[in-house]
Design goal:
- The protein is an alpha+beta fold and about 400 residues long.
- It is globular.
- The N terminus is likely disordered.
Length: about 400
């Protein structure tokens, strides 16, 4: 058995074993490189820049690097797709921009989009509290506001760090959780700090955000997500799964080992729900982030509140200096500023960002998890690749 990691880098032990075909195909498939390509996945014409292609090839070639990587860069109507490695080691086929994948904590940007639109509609207020909308939650949490939840300054204890939760997940990774009761795992714990006094990334925050959205609307979060975000943006290949399966075709995610272990369907996504359970494709993720980071989904007044930054990194940290807004991060790189979100989960690490006007965007999806702890050298290399892609995107 090989280790997968949670969002904080703690190991889970998988009960799934790779098939014999993976053993045979792994050694040769990982070296396959194709790119750049057009947005439909077909190779682009000549004259392409070599920087992104080389960066992805070198990342995949690292001893603990991902089996596959795909980046989508867009400037206005010009979309370039770069890819390296394999979408799955059994077939050896290259990644495609219409392959499905786990979004991990980039799902938090989607729950932020839902909540902030409800703010614009007058159904929610940024100063609404847990006590007002979710009175069943512990009284010690009642003064926490929606704003603090979205900015990770709430102090809520992280349910994904609960020993009981971790034991259940390790015993049966495909266990179906009641997503709306995930906060019960830490209901007997006090706040980590006074609300609003400091920053600390917590997976509990966006669970509470989704519950607030349901409380004021009377509708399931999944319905709100579809009505307010997915349908208006035409995101037909994005959703919130009810179990552990992924729509086909999909990028297979791997845990490192010899051979790597396919962990694409290791966990039931009910265990992370609005905090990290979504799937999408590189094409859809790029479209979403251009709208979300570009501010077109919310009013000017709400956007001003969203971009009131505090010092704080996404999970895992993105390129350059990280600052936290409301379900959005500012990445200040050597080449300029870009807004977005990162995420990781077993088999996947995501980075999606756009310029503040939404005209330029970049997504990078790799098929292994790079946790905040446990792989510092690979994380540093990944952040370097992310920053290089940002610089390539922003070049004049």
């Amino acid at each position: 058995m090989r280790a997968a990691f949670d969002d904080r880098g703690r190991p889970f032990r998988s009960r799934l074993r790779p098939g014999a075909a993976l053993v045979a195909a792994g050694a040769c498939a990982i070296g396959l490189v194709a790119g750049p390509a057009r947005a439909d996945g077909r190779p682009a014409g000549g004259g392409e820049e070599h920087g992104p292609r080389r960066a992805l090839r070198e990342l995949v070639g690292l001893p603990d690097g991902p089996p596959g990587a795909i980046a989508v860069l867009q400037r206005g109507g010009d979309v370039r797709v770069y890819r390296a490695g394999a979408a799955d080691l059994e077939s050896g086929r290259p990644p495609r921009p219409d392959d499905h994948m786990r979004l991990a904590s980039v799902s938090k940007a989607f729950s932020g989009a839902v909540a902030l639109q409800l703010v614009d509609h007058g159904e929610l207020r940024l100063d609404d509290t847990i006590g007002e909308l979710l009175p069943r939650l512990p009284a010690a949490w009642h003064k926490v506001t929606l704003r603090q939840l979205l900015q990770h300054t709430s102090g809520l204890p992280d349910f994904s760090e609960s020993p009981e939760f971790l034991a259940l997940l390790q015993a049966d990774p495909r266990r179906r959780f009641d997503s709306r009761r995930l906060l019960d795992f830490v209901a007997d714990e006090p706040l980590n700090f006074a609300p609003g006094s400091r920053y600390r990334y917590s997976n509990s925050d966006n669970i509470a955000v989704a519950l607030m959205a349901e409380a004021v609307s009377g509708r399931p979060y999944e319905e709100l997500l579809h009505r307010l975000v997915l349908r208006p943006l035409g995101l037909r290949d994005t959703g919130m799964p009810r179990g552990y399966l992924l729509p086909r075709p999909y990028l297979h995610g791997y845990a490192p080992g010899r051979p790597p272990e396919d962990v694409s369907t290791l966990f039931n996504m009910s265990s992370v729900w609005a905090s990290g359970g979504m799937f999408s494709t590189p094409n859809d993720l790029n479209r979403f982030m251009r709208a979300y980071a570009g501010g077109s989904l919310v009013s000017k007044a709400t956007r001003e509140q969203q971009t009131n930054w505090v010092e704080g990194a996404s999970g895992p940290p993105g390129p350059g200096r990280n600052d936290a807004g409301l379900a959005l991060f500012r990445y200040s790189t050597r080449c300029g500023v870009i807004y977005g979100h990162t995420g990781n989960i077993a088999g996947y690490t995501q980075f999606a960002a756009a310029t503040p006007d939404g005209r330029k965007s970049v997504t990078l999806s790799i098929t292994t998890q790079v946790p905040q702890a446990g792989k510092p050298e690979l994380l540093a290399r990944l952040r370097q690749v992310q920053e290089n892609l940002v610089c390539h995107l922003l070049r004049r």
